[in-house]
Amino acid sequence: MSVDELVIERLALGGNGVGRIDGKVCFVPFSAPGDRLKVRVVREHRSYCEAELVELCEPSPQRVEPRCPAFGRCGGCDWQHISYQAQCDAKQQILIETLQRVAHLQAPAVAATAASGLDYGYRARAQFKLHATPAGLAVGFFRRGSRFVIDLPQGCPICTEPINTAMLKLRQVIQAVPDLHRIPQLSLEEGTSGVVAVVHYIGSDHQHLKQLLVQHRDQLGVNGLFLQIARKEALQPVFGSGHLTYPVPRCDLSADAMLLGYEIGGFSQVNRLQNQKMVKLVCGYAQPAASQRMLDLYCGNGNLSLPLSGAVQELLGIEGFAPSIASAVDNARQLRVNNSTFRCNDASKELRHLIAQHAVFDLVLLDPPRAGAADVARQLAQLGAQRIVYVSCDPATLARDLAVLCGAAGYRLIEATPLDMFPQTGHLETVALLTRT
């Protein structure tokens, strides 16, 4: 294929740079705004094309030296070659453009990106892939667009130091396993009491593996260790506890932070410091009052609503993943929160039930998975809450749902704040405040 020359104009949702070839939009991975590049088109589509970088003719002033020697090959990071301030600026602009294009909001109020306190060394959870060959063991992440494992013998620079230390120690010990090729993954999570590990094993001699891990228990740098032999629900303990905790601020910032917990395999935000910033942002947007009832849809372990529980009259949390509801109930009990109820149910079904019962809520928190909350958005107008705080991990589905909420549902977007939960990547978290018009 021919080689074309272009200038990168901006960064797009998903992380690629955007330029034009003969007027046609062209997406180029690992480019930066202001780069002048020679590229080769690898995929043609009707309205755009995708290209690979052939030569960096003139680098953007936003370029910096990536910290990871595997950057560009490993599928984990998109933007290590771009300065952190430029990453934050790009995320704000991406959110504005997505809200304009998908939600049809003419001039959405989008605040500056809430930057992460740590742009490296922030990731407290990782799933390292393994591949054993006669030449040695590779432990790292998949190469972009493939299942080839990129080896990270020094660890991953975006992971916390305890996660990397545990990974390197486990890597050393498990090399004595005869059927090492039957271990496809190591999952590691860090809490306030240390790291918990899960060794994924698809072989037949798990007793031998257990004995080896117990024998080297003091050398592994983990507080708890489990084997996942089949399904996620079938974790087998090897030693220690699978309970993890992390601190979050209370809505009343004058009070001490609270510790929230969950069991290994449950969900939590990987960037613990940035999660605290997100809770503060939600509290500021929610403006809870002692007379109010609050509904938390997709509540998880109570990460967002329990910090607000002391400021409202009543809290109802809904979550479809039973282990997370069990953690939410346990967190409320440990914290002596007596005004909360947590139910395991599909958020859309539960909302339909609440509407049928003419339930009244003043404030709704909404923190759906990446797929968004299309069914919930269509129903929320009937609930009649005055304020909605929507936390999203995907700007496209957020914008789709805001098109409904800010359309027929009768809400108005007051402000959206992009929050950088994943520095060095194109991923974007958003906290948005809507009020009823």
Helix-strand blueprint:
Elements: E1 3-7, E2 10-11, E3 17-21, E4 24-28, E5 36-44, E6 48-58, H1 84-101, E7 125-133, E8 136-142, E9 149-151, H2 161-174, E10 185-191, E11 194-200, H3 206-215, E12 224-228, E13 235-239, E14 243-248, E15 258-263, H4 272-286, E16 293-297, E17 314-319, H5 322-334, E18 340-344, H6 347-356, E19 363-366, H7 374-383, E20 387-392, H8 395-405, E21 411-419, E22 429-436
Parallel strand pairs: 4-6, 11-12, 16-17, 16-19, 17-18, 19-20
Antiparallel strand pairs: 1-5, 2-3, 3-4, 5-6, 7-8, 7-10, 8-9, 10-11, 12-13, 14-15, 20-22, 21-22
Helix pairs in contact: 1-8, 6-7, 7-8
Amount of beta strand: 25-35%
* Computed structural class: alpha/beta
Low-confidence stretches: none
Distance between the termini: 54 Å
Helix count equals 8
Overall geometry: globular
Fraction of residues in helix: 10-25%
**Number of beta strands:** 22
> Biggest sheet, in brief?
7 strands, mixed
Radius of gyration: 23 Å
H/E element string?
A: EEEEEEHEEEHEEHEEEEHEEHEHEHEHEE
Mean pLDDT: 95
Which strand order spans the largest sheet, edge to edge or round the barrel?
9-8-7-10-11-12-13
Describe this structure as you would to a colleague.
- With 437 residues, the protein is of the alpha/beta class.
- 23% of the residues lie in helices and 31% in strands.
- It contains eight helices and 22 strands.
- It has helices spanning 84-101, 161-174, 206-215, 272-286, 322-334, 347-356, 374-383, 395-405, and strands spanning 3-7, 10-11, 17-21, 24-28, 36-44, 48-58, 125-133, 136-142, 149-151, 185-191, 194-200, 224-228, 235-239, 243-248, 258-263, 293-297, 314-319, 340-344, 363-366, 387-392, 411-419, 429-436.
- The strands form four sheets. A seven-stranded mixed sheet has the order 9-8-7-10-11-12-13, covered by helices on one side. Strands 18-17-16-19-20-22-21 form a seven-stranded mixed sheet, sandwiched between helices.
- It is globular, with a radius of gyration of 23 Å.
- The model has no long low-confidence stretch (mean pLDDT 95).
